[in-house]
Write a structure and sequence with these properties.
Layout: E1 21-22, E2 26-32, E3 40-43, E4 46-47, E5 58-63, H1 66-71, E6 72-74, E7 80-83, E8 94-102, E9 108-118, E10 126-127, E11 131-135, E12 143-146, E13 149-150, E14 161-164, E15 175-177, E16 183-186, E17 197-205, E18 210-220
Parallel strand pairs: 2-9, 11-18
Antiparallel strand pairs: 1-4, 3-7, 5-8, 6-7, 8-9, 10-13, 12-16, 14-17, 15-16, 17-18
Length: 236
């Protein structure tokens, strides 16, 4: 009896025994708040050692705040995170996103994305003062008022300098302003008979913008007679 032999071809089928793996567990991004809508901030990458559907990776947000979901978009195919709306450093300066990479089965991996929004000089200083009344006998060097301005930016972008803007020549020597503190002082004697009203323009300037504001200074003479209301009777 002659022995016989046969060649058997065995095909090993892939099973989904490998989970996707991100190239890094954490991604850190710094972006200025004026980054254009549609810009790609970061591209996440995960690989899967399986084949076919078991090795196809899709991306989705795993944990994200409501506001971040309005600001950022994640492409499920490419892993690109893009900007959907204008960012605002003054509103929220950092966002923490958790992204999930999953294959054709139920296996997955997660990665953290930290997006830090950096400040730009997009807010001008705002001055609130409008008018002030002074007596004409106030001594030279007396403080009239201290102008203050608020700037919503941070750091050097929020550092404010003060000055008069195009002050009339006739008032140039009457008042002085400290550029650092915003303090306005009298620099020469006031005279109600010459000027009973001063209109000045105050300017607060930051690193890249400025804000001008009218300032009315009303001079009050201590020699003005007190006028009684009409019909008032006086008994001596």
């Amino acid at each position: 009896m002659t022995p016989s032999s046969a060649v058997l071809a065995l095909r090993v089928l892939d099973v989904n025994d490998n989970a996707p793996v991100f190239s890094q567990a954490e991604y850190t991004v710094r972006v200025p708040e004026d980054v254009p809508v549609g810009s790609v901030l970061v591209t996440l990458k995960a690989t899967d050692a399986d084949e076919g559907l078991n090795g196809q990776v899709k991306y989705s947000f795993h944990k994200i705040s409501d506001r971040a979901s309005e600001l950022f978009n994640l492409d499920s195919e490419t892993g690109e995170i893009t900007v959907k709306e204008d960012l605002d450093f003054e509103e929220i300066s950092s966002h923490e996103l958790k992204v999930r990479a999953h294959d054709g089965g139920e296996l997955s991996d997660t990665a953290e994305v930290m997006i830090t929004v950096t400040d730009i000089n997009d807010n001008v200083p705002k001055i609130s003062v409008r008018s002030v009344t002074v007596r004409e006998d106030m001594a030279v060097g007396s403080r009239v008022l201290k102008v203050t301005a608020t700037d919503r930016d941070e750091g050097p972008n929020a550092e404010v300098k003060y000055s008069f803007f195009q002050i009339p020549e006739k008032f140039d020597k009457t008042f002085k302003m400290d550029p650092e503190s915003g303090e306005i002082v009298i620099s020469e004697n006031l005279n109600f008979e010459e000027h009973e009203f001063y209109e000045l323009v105050v300017q607060a300037r930051d690193a890249g913008g400025l804000s001008s504001h009218n300032l009315d200074i009303i001079c009050w003479s201590i020699l003005l007679p007190y006028l009684l209301p009409k019909g008032t009777r006086i008994w001596l």
